[in-house]
Specification:
Blueprint lengths: L3 H4 L2 H4 L13 E2 L11 H11 L13 H11 L6 E5 L2 H12 L5 E6 L3 H9 L3 E6 L8 H11 L3 E5 L11 H10 L3 E5 L3 H4 L13 E6 L1 H5 L5 E5 L1 H10 L7 H12 L1 H24 L3 E3 L6 E6 L5 H10 L2 E2 L1 E2 L10 E5 L3 H14 L7
Parallel strand pairs: 1-11, 3-4, 3-5, 5-6, 6-7
Antiparallel strand pairs: 2-8, 7-8, 9-10, 10-13, 12-13
Helix pairs in contact: 4-12, 5-6, 7-8, 13-15
The structure holds pyridoxal-5'-phosphate (PLP).
Length: 363
Protein backbone atom coordinates (compact mmCIF):
# COMPACT_ATOMS: atom_id res chain seq x y z
CA UNK A 1 0.00 0.00 0.00
CA UNK A 2 2.82 2.41 -0.76
CA UNK A 3 0.43 4.65 -2.62
CA UNK A 4 -0.87 8.16 -2.00
CA UNK A 5 -4.25 6.89 -0.76
CA UNK A 6 -2.69 5.76 2.49
CA UNK A 7 -0.93 9.01 3.36
CA UNK A 8 -2.49 12.00 1.63
CA UNK A 9 -5.04 13.50 4.02
CA UNK A 10 -8.63 12.99 2.86
CA UNK A 11 -9.21 16.76 2.63
CA UNK A 12 -6.36 17.03 0.11
CA UNK A 13 -7.39 13.92 -1.81
CA UNK A 14 -10.81 15.49 -2.26
CA UNK A 15 -9.27 18.55 -3.94
CA UNK A 16 -8.57 19.06 -7.63
CA UNK A 17 -5.35 20.89 -8.56
CA UNK A 18 -5.90 24.56 -9.42
CA UNK A 19 -6.61 24.75 -13.17
CA UNK A 20 -5.55 27.66 -15.33
CA UNK A 21 -7.25 27.42 -18.73
CA UNK A 22 -5.15 27.95 -21.84
CA UNK A 23 -5.59 31.37 -23.45
CA UNK A 24 -3.71 30.46 -26.63
CA UNK A 25 -4.88 32.65 -29.49
CA UNK A 26 -7.52 34.33 -27.31
CA UNK A 27 -8.02 37.84 -25.96
CA UNK A 28 -7.22 37.16 -22.32
CA UNK A 29 -9.77 38.84 -20.07
CA UNK A 30 -9.99 36.17 -17.38
CA UNK A 31 -7.25 36.86 -14.83
CA UNK A 32 -7.20 40.58 -13.98
CA UNK A 33 -3.90 41.17 -15.72
CA UNK A 34 -2.91 44.66 -16.84
CA UNK A 35 -2.95 44.54 -20.68
CA UNK A 36 -0.03 46.96 -21.06
CA UNK A 37 3.73 46.38 -21.10
CA UNK A 38 6.48 48.82 -20.18
CA UNK A 39 7.51 51.15 -23.05
CA UNK A 40 10.34 49.71 -25.22
CA UNK A 41 12.96 52.15 -23.91
CA UNK A 42 12.28 51.13 -20.31
CA UNK A 43 12.28 47.44 -21.20
CA UNK A 44 15.79 47.92 -22.56
CA UNK A 45 16.89 49.64 -19.32
CA UNK A 46 15.27 46.86 -17.30
CA UNK A 47 17.20 44.20 -19.25
CA UNK A 48 20.43 46.03 -18.46
CA UNK A 49 19.57 45.87 -14.78
CA UNK A 50 18.80 42.17 -15.00
CA UNK A 51 22.22 41.56 -16.54
CA UNK A 52 23.86 42.77 -13.31
CA UNK A 53 22.28 40.03 -11.18
CA UNK A 54 24.59 37.32 -9.84
CA UNK A 55 22.57 34.21 -10.57
CA UNK A 56 25.16 32.06 -8.79
CA UNK A 57 24.34 33.82 -5.50
CA UNK A 58 21.28 33.52 -3.32
CA UNK A 59 19.01 36.58 -3.34
CA UNK A 60 19.10 39.19 -0.57
CA UNK A 61 17.14 37.28 2.10
CA UNK A 62 15.84 40.49 3.67
CA UNK A 63 14.93 42.27 0.41
CA UNK A 64 16.33 45.43 1.99
CA UNK A 65 16.38 47.70 -1.06
CA UNK A 66 13.06 46.47 -2.37
CA UNK A 67 11.34 46.96 0.99
CA UNK A 68 12.79 50.45 1.28
CA UNK A 69 11.31 51.32 -2.09
CA UNK A 70 7.95 49.72 -1.27
CA UNK A 71 7.82 51.71 1.95
CA UNK A 72 8.27 54.98 0.06
CA UNK A 73 6.01 54.20 -2.90
CA UNK A 74 3.17 52.88 -0.74
CA UNK A 75 3.63 55.48 2.02
CA UNK A 76 3.81 52.79 4.70
CA UNK A 77 3.37 54.30 8.19
CA UNK A 78 6.68 54.59 10.02
CA UNK A 79 5.63 52.40 12.97
CA UNK A 80 4.72 49.50 10.64
CA UNK A 81 6.87 46.70 9.24
CA UNK A 82 6.65 44.97 5.84
CA UNK A 83 6.99 41.31 4.87
CA UNK A 84 7.20 40.27 1.21
CA UNK A 85 6.07 37.08 -0.46
CA UNK A 86 6.06 35.19 -3.73
CA UNK A 87 2.74 36.81 -4.62
CA UNK A 88 0.10 37.53 -2.00
CA UNK A 89 -1.02 33.92 -2.39
CA UNK A 90 2.12 32.89 -0.52
CA UNK A 91 1.43 35.48 2.19
CA UNK A 92 -2.13 34.17 2.67
CA UNK A 93 -0.59 30.72 3.09
CA UNK A 94 1.95 32.06 5.59
CA UNK A 95 -0.78 33.72 7.66
CA UNK A 96 -2.82 30.49 7.67
CA UNK A 97 0.27 28.51 8.72
CA UNK A 98 0.99 31.02 11.49
CA UNK A 99 -2.43 31.17 13.14
CA UNK A 100 -4.48 28.40 11.49
CA UNK A 101 -4.36 24.62 11.70
CA UNK A 102 -6.48 21.88 13.24
CA UNK A 103 -9.04 23.26 15.68
CA UNK A 104 -8.74 26.81 14.28
CA UNK A 105 -11.11 28.73 12.04
CA UNK A 106 -10.53 31.14 9.18
CA UNK A 107 -13.39 33.36 7.97
CA UNK A 108 -14.00 35.27 4.74
CA UNK A 109 -17.02 36.63 2.88
CA UNK A 110 -18.86 34.45 0.38
CA UNK A 111 -18.41 34.91 -2.48
CA UNK A 112 -14.80 36.07 -2.32
CA UNK A 113 -11.29 35.17 -3.47
CA UNK A 114 -11.12 31.37 -3.87
CA UNK A 115 -7.63 31.12 -2.37
CA UNK A 116 -8.85 31.86 1.18
CA UNK A 117 -10.87 28.65 1.24
CA UNK A 118 -8.29 26.58 -0.63
CA UNK A 119 -5.50 27.59 1.76
CA UNK A 120 -7.76 26.87 4.77
CA UNK A 121 -8.25 23.35 3.45
CA UNK A 122 -4.55 22.84 2.76
CA UNK A 123 -3.61 23.97 6.29
CA UNK A 124 -6.37 21.91 7.99
CA UNK A 125 -8.07 25.12 9.12
CA UNK A 126 -11.86 25.19 9.29
CA UNK A 127 -13.36 27.69 6.85
CA UNK A 128 -16.39 29.78 7.84
CA UNK A 129 -18.28 31.73 5.18
CA UNK A 130 -19.60 35.19 5.93
CA UNK A 131 -22.47 35.30 3.40
CA UNK A 132 -22.96 38.51 1.44
CA UNK A 133 -26.39 39.91 0.59
CA UNK A 134 -27.70 39.27 -2.92
CA UNK A 135 -26.43 42.73 -4.01
CA UNK A 136 -22.96 41.64 -2.67
CA UNK A 137 -23.02 44.15 0.19
CA UNK A 138 -22.11 42.96 3.67
CA UNK A 139 -24.58 42.98 6.53
CA UNK A 140 -22.60 44.18 9.55
CA UNK A 141 -24.78 42.49 12.13
CA UNK A 142 -24.62 39.14 10.33
CA UNK A 143 -20.83 39.38 9.99
CA UNK A 144 -20.31 40.34 13.64
CA UNK A 145 -22.61 37.52 14.84
CA UNK A 146 -20.81 34.90 12.75
CA UNK A 147 -17.41 36.15 13.87
CA UNK A 148 -18.49 36.16 17.52
CA UNK A 149 -19.87 32.63 17.19
CA UNK A 150 -16.94 31.09 15.29
CA UNK A 151 -14.01 32.97 16.91
CA UNK A 152 -11.78 32.85 13.80
CA UNK A 153 -8.00 33.13 14.09
CA UNK A 154 -8.16 35.41 11.06
CA UNK A 155 -10.69 37.11 8.83
CA UNK A 156 -9.81 37.96 5.23
CA UNK A 157 -11.59 40.88 3.58
CA UNK A 158 -10.76 41.60 -0.05
CA UNK A 159 -11.14 45.38 -0.49
CA UNK A 160 -12.52 45.74 -3.14
CA UNK A 161 -13.91 42.21 -3.21
CA UNK A 162 -13.08 39.66 -5.91
CA UNK A 163 -15.13 38.51 -7.89
CA UNK A 164 -17.87 41.04 -7.11
CA UNK A 165 -15.88 44.29 -7.54
CA UNK A 166 -17.55 46.27 -4.74
CA UNK A 167 -15.76 47.71 -1.69
CA UNK A 168 -17.26 47.04 1.72
CA UNK A 169 -18.09 50.11 3.83
CA UNK A 170 -15.25 51.22 6.06
CA UNK A 171 -17.76 51.28 8.95
CA UNK A 172 -18.34 47.55 8.42
CA UNK A 173 -14.60 46.85 8.28
CA UNK A 174 -14.13 48.77 11.54
CA UNK A 175 -16.86 46.65 13.13
CA UNK A 176 -15.19 43.46 11.91
CA UNK A 177 -11.84 44.63 13.31
CA UNK A 178 -13.50 45.37 16.67
CA UNK A 179 -15.42 42.05 16.79
CA UNK A 180 -12.62 39.78 15.54
CA UNK A 181 -10.75 37.94 18.30
CA UNK A 182 -7.72 37.49 16.01
CA UNK A 183 -6.25 38.96 12.85
CA UNK A 184 -8.15 40.88 10.19
CA UNK A 185 -6.37 40.98 6.85
CA UNK A 186 -7.59 43.66 4.46
CA UNK A 187 -6.50 42.38 1.04
CA UNK A 188 -5.98 45.42 -1.19
CA UNK A 189 -5.02 43.55 -4.37
CA UNK A 190 -7.03 46.09 -6.44
CA UNK A 191 -5.88 49.20 -4.61
CA UNK A 192 -4.51 50.86 -7.75
CA UNK A 193 -8.00 50.88 -9.26
CA UNK A 194 -10.03 51.71 -6.15
CA UNK A 195 -7.83 54.33 -4.54
CA UNK A 196 -9.27 53.14 -1.21
CA UNK A 197 -7.05 51.86 1.56
CA UNK A 198 -6.87 51.04 5.26
CA UNK A 199 -3.08 51.30 5.32
CA UNK A 200 -3.16 54.45 7.46
CA UNK A 201 -5.30 52.65 10.05
CA UNK A 202 -2.84 49.77 10.57
CA UNK A 203 -0.85 51.53 13.30
CA UNK A 204 -4.04 52.17 15.29
CA UNK A 205 -5.26 48.55 15.27
CA UNK A 206 -3.00 45.84 16.70
CA UNK A 207 -4.93 43.06 14.90
CA UNK A 208 -5.06 44.66 11.43
CA UNK A 209 -2.81 43.67 8.51
CA UNK A 210 -3.01 45.23 5.05
CA UNK A 211 -1.97 43.12 2.06
CA UNK A 212 -1.00 44.41 -1.39
CA UNK A 213 0.31 42.83 -4.58
CA UNK A 214 2.00 44.11 -7.73
CA UNK A 215 0.14 41.51 -9.81
CA UNK A 216 -2.97 43.42 -10.84
CA UNK A 217 -1.21 46.69 -11.58
CA UNK A 218 1.07 45.39 -14.30
CA UNK A 219 3.59 42.95 -12.80
CA UNK A 220 1.75 39.64 -12.51
CA UNK A 221 4.77 37.77 -13.87
CA UNK A 222 7.01 38.89 -11.01
CA UNK A 223 4.95 37.32 -8.21
CA UNK A 224 5.41 39.92 -5.50
CA UNK A 225 3.04 40.52 -2.62
CA UNK A 226 3.46 42.31 0.69
CA UNK A 227 1.84 42.57 4.09
CA UNK A 228 2.05 45.65 6.29
CA UNK A 229 1.47 45.34 10.03
CA UNK A 230 2.82 45.91 13.50
CA UNK A 231 6.45 44.83 14.11
CA UNK A 232 5.03 42.21 16.49
CA UNK A 233 2.86 40.43 13.90
CA UNK A 234 5.34 40.84 11.05
CA UNK A 235 8.06 39.44 13.33
CA UNK A 236 6.00 36.31 13.95
CA UNK A 237 5.34 35.90 10.21
CA UNK A 238 9.08 36.23 9.50
CA UNK A 239 9.63 32.99 11.45
CA UNK A 240 7.71 30.91 8.95
CA UNK A 241 8.83 32.71 5.80
CA UNK A 242 11.14 30.39 3.88
CA UNK A 243 14.54 31.94 3.22
CA UNK A 244 14.91 33.49 -0.25
CA UNK A 245 11.18 33.32 -1.01
CA UNK A 246 11.50 36.34 -3.34
CA UNK A 247 14.05 35.61 -6.06
CA UNK A 248 16.78 37.96 -7.30
CA UNK A 249 15.15 38.65 -10.67
CA UNK A 250 11.90 39.63 -8.99
CA UNK A 251 13.67 41.83 -6.46
CA UNK A 252 15.61 43.79 -9.04
CA UNK A 253 12.71 43.98 -11.51
CA UNK A 254 10.24 45.20 -8.89
CA UNK A 255 12.72 47.79 -7.66
CA UNK A 256 13.20 48.99 -11.22
CA UNK A 257 9.48 49.14 -12.01
CA UNK A 258 8.64 50.93 -8.76
CA UNK A 259 11.10 53.64 -9.80
CA UNK A 260 8.88 54.00 -12.87
CA UNK A 261 5.75 54.08 -10.75
CA UNK A 262 4.26 56.98 -12.73
CA UNK A 263 3.93 54.63 -15.72
CA UNK A 264 2.06 51.97 -13.75
CA UNK A 265 -0.12 54.72 -12.23
CA UNK A 266 -0.94 56.11 -15.70
CA UNK A 267 -1.83 52.59 -16.91
CA UNK A 268 -4.15 52.08 -13.93
CA UNK A 269 -5.82 55.43 -14.63
CA UNK A 270 -6.41 54.35 -18.22
CA UNK A 271 -7.88 51.04 -17.03
CA UNK A 272 -10.22 52.88 -14.63
CA UNK A 273 -11.43 55.14 -17.48
CA UNK A 274 -11.94 52.11 -19.74
CA UNK A 275 -13.76 50.29 -16.92
CA UNK A 276 -16.33 53.09 -16.92
CA UNK A 277 -16.74 52.87 -20.71
CA UNK A 278 -17.13 49.08 -20.52
CA UNK A 279 -19.61 49.36 -17.65
CA UNK A 280 -21.73 51.93 -19.51
CA UNK A 281 -21.79 49.72 -22.61
CA UNK A 282 -22.74 46.64 -20.57
CA UNK A 283 -25.52 48.56 -18.85
CA UNK A 284 -26.98 49.41 -22.26
CA UNK A 285 -26.94 45.78 -23.34
CA UNK A 286 -30.17 43.81 -22.96
CA UNK A 287 -30.02 40.33 -21.39
CA UNK A 288 -27.71 41.00 -18.44
CA UNK A 289 -27.01 42.94 -15.26
CA UNK A 290 -23.61 44.59 -14.75
CA UNK A 291 -22.37 45.23 -11.21
CA UNK A 292 -20.47 48.44 -10.41
CA UNK A 293 -16.77 47.80 -9.76
CA UNK A 294 -13.88 49.49 -7.94
CA UNK A 295 -11.45 46.96 -9.45
CA UNK A 296 -10.07 46.15 -12.93
CA UNK A 297 -12.87 43.72 -13.74
CA UNK A 298 -16.64 43.76 -14.03
CA UNK A 299 -19.02 41.06 -12.86
CA UNK A 300 -22.10 40.48 -15.01
CA UNK A 301 -25.10 38.25 -14.52
CA UNK A 302 -26.92 36.98 -17.58
CA UNK A 303 -30.71 36.98 -17.47
CA UNK A 304 -32.14 33.61 -16.45
CA UNK A 305 -33.14 32.67 -19.99
CA UNK A 306 -29.45 32.62 -21.01
CA UNK A 307 -26.93 29.96 -19.99
CA UNK A 308 -23.64 31.51 -18.78
CA UNK A 309 -21.65 28.34 -19.47
CA UNK A 310 -22.86 28.26 -23.07
CA UNK A 311 -22.19 31.98 -23.52
CA UNK A 312 -18.70 31.55 -22.00
CA UNK A 313 -18.00 28.76 -24.48
CA UNK A 314 -19.33 30.80 -27.42
CA UNK A 315 -17.23 33.81 -26.38
CA UNK A 316 -14.15 31.59 -26.67
CA UNK A 317 -15.21 30.63 -30.18
CA UNK A 318 -15.34 34.39 -30.86
CA UNK A 319 -11.75 34.65 -29.56
CA UNK A 320 -12.38 36.05 -26.06
CA UNK A 321 -11.58 34.32 -22.77
CA UNK A 322 -13.45 35.54 -19.68
CA UNK A 323 -14.07 33.81 -16.34
CA UNK A 324 -17.15 31.67 -15.92
CA UNK A 325 -18.33 31.92 -12.33
CA UNK A 326 -21.52 29.92 -12.69
CA UNK A 327 -21.84 27.65 -9.64
CA UNK A 328 -18.64 29.11 -8.16
CA UNK A 329 -20.29 30.34 -4.98
CA UNK A 330 -23.15 32.11 -3.32
CA UNK A 331 -25.18 34.46 -5.58
CA UNK A 332 -22.89 33.78 -8.57
CA UNK A 333 -25.29 31.74 -10.66
CA UNK A 334 -25.16 32.70 -14.34
CA UNK A 335 -22.31 35.16 -13.66
CA UNK A 336 -19.24 35.94 -15.78
CA UNK A 337 -16.28 38.13 -14.77
CA UNK A 338 -14.57 40.25 -17.39
CA UNK A 339 -11.14 41.80 -16.85
CA UNK A 340 -10.86 45.32 -18.25
CA UNK A 341 -8.46 45.12 -21.21
CA UNK A 342 -7.34 47.74 -23.70
CA UNK A 343 -10.08 49.83 -25.29
CA UNK A 344 -9.78 47.72 -28.49
CA UNK A 345 -10.01 44.45 -26.52
CA UNK A 346 -13.03 45.69 -24.59
CA UNK A 347 -14.79 46.59 -27.81
CA UNK A 348 -13.98 43.18 -29.30
CA UNK A 349 -15.40 41.60 -26.18
CA UNK A 350 -18.58 43.70 -26.37
CA UNK A 351 -19.29 42.78 -29.97
CA UNK A 352 -18.52 39.12 -29.23
CA UNK A 353 -20.92 39.20 -26.28
CA UNK A 354 -23.62 40.82 -28.37
CA UNK A 355 -23.16 38.07 -30.97
CA UNK A 356 -23.39 35.40 -28.25
CA UNK A 357 -26.62 36.56 -26.64
CA UNK A 358 -28.74 34.79 -29.24
CA UNK A 359 -31.52 32.17 -29.08
CA UNK A 360 -28.92 29.34 -29.29
CA UNK A 361 -27.46 30.26 -25.90
CA UNK A 362 -30.85 30.33 -24.18
CA UNK A 363 -31.65 27.53 -21.79
C1 LIG B 1 -5.48 38.23 -7.52
C2 LIG B 1 -5.70 38.31 -6.07
C3 LIG B 1 -4.69 37.99 -5.16
C4 LIG B 1 -3.44 37.24 -5.62
O1 LIG B 1 -2.41 38.02 -5.85
P1 LIG B 1 -0.95 37.44 -6.20
O2 LIG B 1 -0.09 38.47 -5.59
O3 LIG B 1 -0.88 37.40 -7.68
O4 LIG B 1 -0.78 36.10 -5.56
C5 LIG B 1 -4.91 38.18 -3.82
N1 LIG B 1 -6.09 38.62 -3.37
C6 LIG B 1 -7.10 38.92 -4.20
C7 LIG B 1 -8.39 39.40 -3.65
C8 LIG B 1 -6.95 38.76 -5.57
O5 LIG B 1 -7.98 38.99 -6.39
Amino acid sequence: MKNSEQWVRPAIRALAAYQVPSAKGLIKLDAMENPYQLPAQLRAEWLQQLATVSLNRYPDPECVRLKRRLRTVMAVPEQCDIIVGNGSDELIQMIAMLVGGAGRTLAAPAPSFAMYRLISTITSTKFVELPLQSDFSADAKKFVNLITASQPCCVFLAYPNNPTGNSFDTALIEQVIAAAPGLVIVDEAYHSFSGKSLLKQVAGHPNLLVMRTLSKSGLAGLRLGMVVGSPEWIGQLEKIRLPYNVNSLTQISAEFCLQQQHILVAQSKQIVADRQKLFDALQQMPGLTAYPSDANFILIRLDTDFDATLVHHKLKQHGVLVKNLHQCGLHLDNCLRITVGTDAQNRQFLSALEACLVPQTRR
